[in-house]
Write a structure and sequence with these properties.
4-stranded antiparallel sheet, 4 strands, cell division, ABC3_permease_C, FtsX, 10 helices, alpha+beta, Alpha-Beta Plaits, Cell division protein FtsX, single chain
Length: about 300
């Protein structure tokens, strides 16, 4: 096959349907931005889970002076009850689950409380005596937090067993919903891109029906006739994919690494190397999308 002829046919087709080709590029760009954003968001969620769940602790809050829990009817936790809870945390029964135990006194809890709510009205109204002593338990497997929760249910001197996962899980649920929404938009836009590519190929084939007729008469093969149309759609889609990768790179480079890291330095964020992991997938989707739409359209409207 003459490469020069092929390039000329592609250029001719793109010139004749320039507006439609630009539309294909833009729709592919938008759809793949959503696909890429969904993928990157899922990578971010996974990275955040690894970061936070590795630091998750189970807090065993001991009875304070004014506790109203059924296990605190005798008043504030006694030294014997406090020692008994620690002994249970270090017992052979919980040893397979517990990695470390740290005691937090009222003074420590009050200091952390003041740092956490610094500058708010609640920080000024709280007193050290109102806060609970607690044991901060780091688990070997954070998913096994219910073992500790159930173990100390009804234990005298223990007001409440609180797992930090209960605070984090709703947050991650929101992020997963956002990922699903981005995926939904991506599916809609991909369908729109496929339809637009099919329409573009159909118009291109119609505008060049005379040339294709002559090529049939001179014995040109099916591949020679259909390949320029196929490559037009693929080329426009790949350009859209390239723009999508560039947009995602800029968003991560300047939005996440350039701004979010400084504004909320709480955990590790995804970097530009994750964009390069997603990039081949986006290009592959673009080629597959354009190829499928083009072949389907050509087989129907350009029979050879």
């Amino acid at each position: 096959m003459n490469v020069g002829f092929l390039i000329g046919e592609i250029a001719s087709g793109l010139r004749r349907n320039l507006a439609m080709a630009i539309s294909v590029v833009l729709v592919t760009f938008v759809s793949l931005v959503f696909v890429g954003a969904g993928g990157l968001l899922q990578l971010q969620v996974a990275q955040m889970k690894d970061y936070w769940y590795d630091r998750v602790q189970v807090s065993v809050f001991l009875c304070a002076k004014d506790s109203e829990a059924p296990t605190c009817t005798s008043g504030e936790v006694t030294a014997a009850q406090r020692d008994a809870v620690l002994a249970e945390l270090q017992s052979p029964t919980l040893a397979p689950y517990v990695e470390s135990v740290q005691f937090e006194s009222k003074a420590d809890a009050f200091k952390r409380f003041q740092e956490q709510f610094k500058g708010t009205a609640i920080a000024d109204s709280a007193t050290e005596d109102q806060l609970n002593e607690s044991y901060r338990v780091k688990l070997k497997d954070p998913t096994k937090y219910e073992v500790v929760t159930q173990y100390f249910a009804g234990t005298p001197g223990v007001e409440e067993v609180q797992d930090q996962r209960r605070v984090l899980d709703p947050f991650f649920t929101v992020l997963n919903v956002a990922t699903a929404v981005a995926g939904g938009f991506a599916v809609v836009m991909i369908i729109a891109a496929a339809l637009l590519i099919a329409t573009t190929i159909r118009l291109s084939a119609f505008s060049r029906r005379r040339e294709t007729g002559i090529m049939r008469l001179v014995g040109a093969s099916k591949v020679v006739i259909q390949l320029p149309f196929l490559l037009e759609g693929v080329l426009a889609s790949v350009v859209g994919a390239g723009l999508a990768v560039g947009a995602l790179y800029a968003a991560v480079r300047f939005g996440v690494q350039g701004w979010l890291v400084e504004a909320l330095p709480l955990f590790g964020y995804i970097g530009t190397h994750q964009v390069w992991l997603v990039a081949p997938v986006l290009v592959g989707i673009a080629v597959l999308l354009a190829g499928t739409a083009s072949v389907t359209t050509l087989s129907r409207y350009l029979r050879v």
